[in-house]
Design goal:
This protein is an alpha+beta fold and about 375 residues long. The chain contains 17 helices and 9 strands. Strands 3, 4, 5, 6, 7, 8 and 9 form a 7-stranded mixed sheet that branches. The chain has a two-stranded antiparallel ribbon with strand order 1-2. Strand 4 and strand 5 form a beta hairpin. Helix 6 crosses helix 8, helix 7 packs across helix 8 and helix 8 packs across helix 17.
Length: about 375
């Protein structure tokens, strides 16, 4: 009996040892498999890490070597001559050309550059690293996107002082060069290009007038603060009167005045009023907004001013006056659209320095006339 019990115990011990050995073999197999997989993954990671920025590093993986390669690539990017921004960078990209300059494509840009004449070649100084074409491009980017001078200096790889001098020089040049162009069309020209709907309702319209304002910094002088504060915009502004033909061509841009001046005062000081016989013929008409009450200024020259009807103490307008006002509003919106198109140049929305008011007045003229009139008309032939 005792012999049978001892034999059973020996068989049980043998079975437990066999199972334990089997478990150990299993664990060893799993560990070996894990080590194999880990080694494969490490090799894959090393091979992928060895390919950095498209450059394969031969030999063993070295973090210090990879970091040195990254630094070298960054230095090459900053000092590479091909990274310099120029007209060649965007000449084949119409979307970029319109974004940076407002022109439709490279041919459109070069057409505008060509009409400036040979005088542009005299703007090239010996010390300047920018060609006249790239100087114009830099100026247009400043006007279109209102970029800071330091950003433009990074783009064109010139000093910040060079950027500032170039922009001021080109704004003055564009102003005096384009000022020589007579933008006031004759009556026959206006009639020839007048849209069908305009000719049916207001056939004698010569110009559409409306005012626009651009923000400026608050001047330090108290009198200047008062003169430039606009009660309409509730800030310090420059104000100008803009006129366009019924077809949407900008035909008049006044000088800029402080934001406190009224629309009537601007027109009183303008050549449209002082030299009305030179600009208008008998039976011509002007279309203006409700706040521009200048009928008496042009009555002596037989020029009529179409403005929406004022209530003048009435509780409501007559039905015929309502219809007439709606017709005027439907046509006067064209000058509002023209001003809105000009303000796609972000420089007109950016607050200008108070000591650069003369430059601001010239910027308004350049953008409202030059940039707008050299783009496709926004008024249809049947408007």
């Amino acid at each position: 009996m005792r012999r049978a019990e001892r034999a059973a115990k020996r068989r049980k011990s043998s079975t437990s040892a066999t199972i334990f050995e089997s478990d150990e073999n299993k664990d060893d197999t799993e560990v070996a498999c894990f080590a194999t997989v880990k080694g494969t993954v490490s090799e894959m990671d090393t091979s992928e890490t060895n390919c950095i920025n498209g450059i394969v590093i031969n030999g063993d993986f070295d973090k210090s070597e990879t970091k040195a390669v990254d630094v070298q690539l960054q230095c090459n990017l900053l000092t590479d001559g091909q990274s310099k921004f120029s007209i060649k960078t965007i000449k084949d990209n119409p979307v970029a050309m319109k974004y940076y300059t407002g022109f439709l494509d490279y041919k459109h840009f070069m057409f505008f550059f060509g009409i400036l004449g040979p005088a542009v070649n005299h703007l090239q100084s010996r010390s300047s690293r920018l060609t006249p074409v790239n100087q114009l491009l830099l100026t247009l980017i400043k006007l279109r996107q209102a970029k800071d001078d330091v950003e433009l200096s990074f783009m064109f790889r010139v000093s910040e002082a060079t950027v500032s001098k170039t922009i001021i020089k080109w704004i003055n040049f564009l102003y005096f060069q384009l000022k020589e162009i007579n933008i006031w069309p004759s009556q026959s020209t206006v009639q020839q290009h007048m849209p069908t709907g305009f000719k049916r309702l207001f056939p004698h319209t010569r110009v559409l007038l409306d005012a626009t304002e651009i923000p400026i910094q608050k001047p330090s002088n108290v009198n200047s603060q008062s003169a430039t504060f606009s009660t309409y915009k509730h800030k310090n502004t420059l104000k100008a009167m803009i006129g366009c033909t019924p077809h949407g061509c900008v035909s008049y841009v006044s000088d800029c005045y402080g934001g406190s001046v009224s629309d009537r005062q601007i027109i009183e000081r303008s050549p449209l009023c002082k030299e009305a016989s030179k600009y208008f013929e008998r039976n011509d008409s002007i279309m203006a907004d409700r706040g521009i009450m200048v009928q008496d200024l042009f009555a002596s020259n037989d020029v009529f001013v179409n403005t929406p009807t004022m209530l003048k103490g009435k509780s409501q307008l007559e039905p015929k006056d309502v219809v007439r006002d709606r017709r005027i509003a439907s046509k006067h919106i064209h000058i509002v659209r023209e001003i809105g198109l000009s303000k796609t140049f972000k420089i007109l929305k950016k607050v200008s320095a108070a000591n650069k008011l003369t430059l601001g007045s010239r910027i308004v003229y350049i953008i409202c006339f030059a940039m707008t009139n050299f783009r496709p008309a926004i008024v249809n032939d049947w408007a």
